[in-house]
Automatic annotation (TrEMBL):
It comes from Candidatus Acutalibacter pullistercoris. Residues 1-10, 69-81 have a biased composition (Basic and acidic residues). The keyword ATP-binding does not apply. Residues 1-115 are annotated as: Disordered. The chain crosses the membrane at residues 122-145. Gene3D superfamilies: LCP protein. This is LCP family protein. Coiled coil: none annotated. Signal peptide: none annotated.
């Protein structure tokens, strides 16, 4: 049994002395932006004027649910109206694809725009795995670890004594935050558990959907993504341990606010693109150019079937394999308009596989430089010795097994909280058993012959 747990966040992310703790009165704000790129004539685009074109698709819109009190009140009215209309209908899980929303409420969700964070979650998850791999592969170059920020965890992280543990299996929490500075503070848009299994020489990755409804100590039931914002990695790790009965004692946080730079350090990612995906990449590159002035260059936009960049949305594109740079990879990960959630998950896997493929092309003398670039955007509780001890398993081949929670076994449903936030609701005890079987296989107390 762990010692009695405090409701107060511990460590460097704890609040100032004298501050009140407890559940926030207002939900954390999600500020996402989306707009249409300009519809140009059939003349080649003037890249130097692209961000200020008078032919743009309208004002740059803040479509956040909580961007203002007026917007939040309007959302609440729409939510109540939709709830009355939906009456006894249950809300299906978003992860089942577009058809899953046939019975969903048609109020606030009907006007929601694509969220910009999805693509960055893709790249953050991939590089959180690769930072561990790179450190192991660069074991002979200990000096490069000087650029990695090490921040030990403090406080009680235990789940109360019910977690299964095996000394041959190391579970590490992976978090991805979108901070524009080097603070690594904010919500964790990526939550995952990286398992280093020394029994079988494998790496396993369990992804927890950020909108999962979980109990956060001191704050009650809320989105899993909010635990990091409330109490930093300490509270986030404790929440994972308590919810899914895990034995996590270490973490890696990746700041993907500058993820494009890291992808560029790897030499880009080679991806097979469809014509529709190319169009959406250009749409998203335009959005990136509006969000951050001067970020996108004219050469970032993908050419159409005639080898020109003329009309971002109206041109005809062709399928092809492209080497995407950092900005293009971020835009690729943001694609949310043309298919279901399953396809978006497939893109996550493609990005990860492409990064691993690029890593395998490098020689060992290039690892320190890559690690130095990645480490600048990472924070971890793992010391140099612990990181370097991972090198034997990593050197066996970067074989990665994956699991996403909730899945079909958990039968998740979508629902709204009293504050209007959308969450996945599912049996976390059943999910904990699923994760245990995935990580420990036949050694799990819940093993039934398969995951």
């Amino acid at each position: 049994m762990g010692k009695q747990q405090s409701d107060k966040p511990q460590g460097r992310h704890a609040g100032k002395a004298g501050e009140q703790t407890g559940r926030r009165r207002e939900p954390l704000r999600d500020n996402y932006y989306y707009e249409q790129p300009p519809r140009h004539s059939r003349e080649p685009m003037e890249f130097e004027d692209i961000s200020s074109s008078s032919q743009g698709g309208g004002e740059f819109q803040d479509i956040s649910s909580y961007s203002s009190d007026r917007q939040r009140q309007q959302d609440q009215r729409e939510l109540r109206q939709a709830s009355r209309q939906a009456a006894s209908q249950s809300y299906p899980a978003r992860s089942r694809g577009d058809q899953a929303w046939s019975g969903a409420p048609q109020g606030r969700e009907a006007v929601r725009k694509p969220k910009k964070g999805a693509g960055r979650r893709v790249l953050s998850l991939a590089l959180a795995v690769l930072v561990v791999a790179l450190v192991g592969l660069a074991g002979a170059f200990l000096f490069v670890l000087s650029g990695l920020r090490v921040s030990p965890l403090s406080g009680d992280l235990a789940d109360g004594g019910s977690a299964y543990s095996d000394s041959r299996v190391k579970n590490i929490a992976l978090f991805g935050v979108d901070a524009r500075d080097d603070s690594n503070e904010g919500r964790s848009d990526v939550l995952a558990i990286l398992t280093v299994d020394n029994r079988r020489g494998t790496l396993k990755l369990t992804s927890i959907l950020r909108d999962s409804q979980v109990y956060i100590e001191g704050y009650g039931y809320d989105k899993a993504t909010h635990a990091y914002a409330y109490g930093g990695p300490e509270l986030a790790v404790r929440t994972l341990n308590q919810t899914f009965h895990l034995d996590i004692t270490d973490y890696v946080t990746v700041n993907f606010g500058e993820m494009a730079q890291i992808v560029d350090a790897f030499g880009g990612v080679e991806i097979a693109l469809t014509a529709d995906e190319k169009r959406e990449i250009n749409r998203n590159l335009w959005n990136l150019s509006v969000e951050t002035e001067g970020l996108i260059k004219g050469t970032d936009y993908l050419a159409d079937a005639n080898g020109q960049v003329v009309d971002l949305l109206g041109s005809t594109y062709s399928d092809s394999v492209e080497l995407l740079n950092g900005n293009q990879a971020v835009a690729y990960g943001r694609i949310r308009e043309i298919d279901s959630d399953d396809a978006r998950v497939s893109r996550q896997q493609q990005v990860l596989q492409a990064l691993v493929a690029q890593l395998k092309k490098k020689n060992i003398f290039q690892y320190p430089g890559l690690l130095r670039e990645v480490a600048a955007h990472c924070e971890t509780s793992l010391g140099a010795g612990e990181l370097l001890s991972l090198s034997p398993i990593v050197l066996r081949g970067l074989r990665l097994e994956t699991l996403s929670i909730p899945g079909a076994e958990e039968a998740p449903s979508g629902s709204y909280t009293e504050s209007g936030a959308w969450v996945y609701v599912y049996d976390t005890e059943q999910a904990a058993q699923h994760i245990s079987r995935f990580i420990y296989e036949e050694d799990s107390p819940y093993w039934n012959g398969g995951v």
